[in-house]
Design goal:
Length: 195
């Protein structure tokens, strides 16, 4: 979590959050009034400390659903589920199951922990696939434009998106993901397709 006087950023896992943290601390550090360290296990909390509850504008990362669930399951495989094979993780992904889900059981239930219904109109989403452009536009609107961000950070973004083995989902499998997660689908359709 990062808090400024203008907004609260909730660190939604697997949506470019570490990069957002880096960009905020490099370009807008003077605006930060509270933040979790990037290595703090509590960085993904979804409720601000009481003294900041009056701030009612929010920023969060987001990404397309198939990409998010694949990234989530790959992360869990790497860090927590060493007993599972890559093929088993792939099967979980295709069947809309999150590996080692913890307190949430689906992408929708995970997202609803962060985006409560009263927050939707007050939340700006930074799409992971367009992170630099969205960051410059949205954070610039709150804290003032910094025109050098995109040019200076192109290589950083490129180097952070290292090639990894891809899980390919069929149209049928993608349809199942979206039908099972209408809350995610609705937000995604607005952010990516303007529907």
């Amino acid at each position: 979590m990062i808090i400024t006087k203008e907004f609260i950023w909730f660190h939604l896992g697997k949506t470019g959050g570490d990069m957002f943290h880096y960009l905020m601390n490099k370009y807008y550090k003077e605006h930060i009034i509270f933040q979790h360290d990037i290595k703090d296990p509590h960085k993904h909390v979804n409720v601000p400390p009481k003294e900041y509850e009056h701030i009612k504008k929010y920023v969060m990362g987001f990404r397309r659903l198939p990409s998010w669930i694949i990234s989530h399951n790959r992360h869990k495989l790497k860090n927590e589920c060493k007993y599972l094979s890559y093929e088993e993780v792939e099967e979980h992904t295709k069947n809309n199951r999150l590996v080692f889900p913890g307190f949430f059981s689906s992408p929708d239930s995970f997202l609803k922990e962060y985006v409560r219904s009263d927050m939707i109109d007050r939340t700006n989403f930074i799409r992971q696939e367009y992170l630099l452009e969205d960051f410059a536009k949205i954070i610039g609107r709150y804290l003032g434009k910094n025109r050098t961000i995109i040019d200076e950070e192109k290589e950083t973004i490129k180097n952070s998106n290292k090639a990894t083995k891809q899980i390919t989902l069929t149209h049928k499998e993608k349809d199942l993901l979206y039908k099972s997660n209408p809350f995610w689908r609705n937000i995604e359709s607005v952010l990516y397709w303007g529907v």
